[in-house]
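Q: How would the C-alpha cells look for this protein?
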Amino acid sequence: MSQKMTQYGDPVIEAAGTGGARIVGIQPSVVKIDPVSRVEGHLKMNVSLESVGGQLQVVDAWSTGTLFRGLEKVLVNRDPWDAVVITQRICGVCPISHAMASVLALDDVAGVTIPNNARVLRNLVLGANFIQSHILHFYILGLLDFMDGPDMAPWAPRWSADKRLDAAAEAQLLGHYLEALAMRRKAHEMGAVFGGRLPHAASFIPGGFTASVSSSRISQISAYLGELIPFISNVLLPDIELLASFYPDYFDIGGGRGNLLAFGVFDLNSSGTSKLLDRGRVVNGSTVVQAVNEAAIREQVTHSWYQNGTNDLHPSAGETEAQFPKLGAYSWLKAPRYSGAAYEAGPLARMWVNGDYREGISVLDRHRARAFEALKVAQAMQGWLGELQVGGQVFQQNSAPSSGTSFGLTEAPRGALGHWLEISSGKISNYQVVTPTCWNASPRDTAGTRGPIEEALIGTPVSDMAQPVEVLRVIHSFDPCLACAVHVMRADDETEVCVINPR
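A: Here is the predicted structure in C-alpha cell form.
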C-alpha cells in the first residue's frame, strides 16, 4: 500500500489544558499521512509543521487509530478457556504474546502452577515469535524508509526525499532483505515445532502446554537457532550499524519524554519472580528503575471515540462503549496511562529497564535495542533447551472457577501487554486488553498530554513537506501494530457499496 498524503483539508484538533478540545479550522501547515503504511492495521498521523530557525520541523502531532476496537465484546459470555484461542486472533504478527497474557490470567484465576517443562516450552514458542517479529520489523517494515531499492513492489511507489545510502550499502541491504525473508520463515517454523502451528499456536492452555518434549524436537529447535543466531549477530546487527553510519542524526531524533515501561517477560522460575527481561519503569530517561504497580494503570478516553463515562478506569473495570462522533475525539485508541503519565513500551524500554541497553532514546536506539534483544532471546533459547526433560510433565490438571478476577502481564515484541479477566457464573463477564500500541500510539489524555509517538515526533526535521519521510522513520521506529490496537469494524445499514470499473 502506498502512502496517501494531503496537505490541506483536515480539521486541526486543539487540546486545552483541561482536556477539552475544539475544532479550530484548517491550517496549511498540517500534513496528513493516511494510511501510515507498513504497519499492521490502520493508522493515520496528522503533523503540524513550522519553520524553526530556518528548518521545517514538526511542532505538533495527532495519532489516529481509524477502526473501532471491540474484540473484548466478542469474549463476553464465552467459556473462559476460549480466551486463549480468541485473543490470538487479535494479530497475526504477535499472537503468541496474547496467548501468553491470556493463559497467565487463566493460570492465576484457576490457582494452578504449571510444570517446569511447560514454562520452558511457552518461553521457546514466544521467543521464536519475538525473533521473527524483530527480523520482520527492520528489514521489511522499517528499512524501506531509508533506501530506494528496485522499481517494484514493495519498494515502489516511494518517496525520494533524504536518501543517503551509496550503491554498495544499498546492494548489501537489499541482499540481506531477501535473506531476512528466509530467516523470518525459519523463525516461524521453529516456533511451530512445539507450538503446533504459527502464527496462531494450538499449544497454550491453562495449566501448561499441549506438546510433548522429545529429543528430536529439541534438536530441531537447536538447528534453527544455529542459523538464526549467526544471522542476527553477523547480518542484522552490522546492518543497523551500517544504516547508522549514513544517518547518525537519527540518534538525536524521535526521543520523546523518555518514560519507559516494561511488564517483564520470559519467566525463569515457576513463580515468575525471575525473568529474562525484568519488569520495571523509568522516568525521563533515568537509569533508576522503579517498580510497576498494576493498580496504577488507567485508560483515558477524553480524546477517544468512547463514552466519557468510561474515562480513567482501571482495565479490570474497563468498558468498550463507542461514541462516534464525539467532540474533541480523534482516535479509536484509548490512552493508557501509568499514574497519569504517558509511557513508551517496546524493546528499548525492556532493554533499558533490564540494564542491557542505555545508549539513548531515539529512532536508531530503538532499532539497535530491538536487534540486541533478538540476540539475547535467541541465545537464551539455546540455554532453555537444556532445561527440558524428555517425556516430562507438561500439564497440571485444573478447572475454571465459577467466578473470579485475574490479569496477565507480559510483553509482545512491540512492548508491554496486559489482559484483564472477570468470570461470573462460569462465563467471561468482562475482558480488557491493553496493547503496546495503545500505549505508544495513544491520543492525548484528559490533561492534554500527548501519547508517546505524538511526543516523539515533536522537533523532527522535515526536508520536503510533500514527502515527510522523516515522520515515517519516527513512527516506524516504534513498530506500531494497529491490528492489536483496533480490532473490528462493521458496516451500518446505510453504507453504500461502490464498484470500481464494473464490467
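DSSP finds twelve helices and 17 strands in the chain.

Residues 92 and 155 are 23 Å apart (CA to CA).

Upvote if useful.
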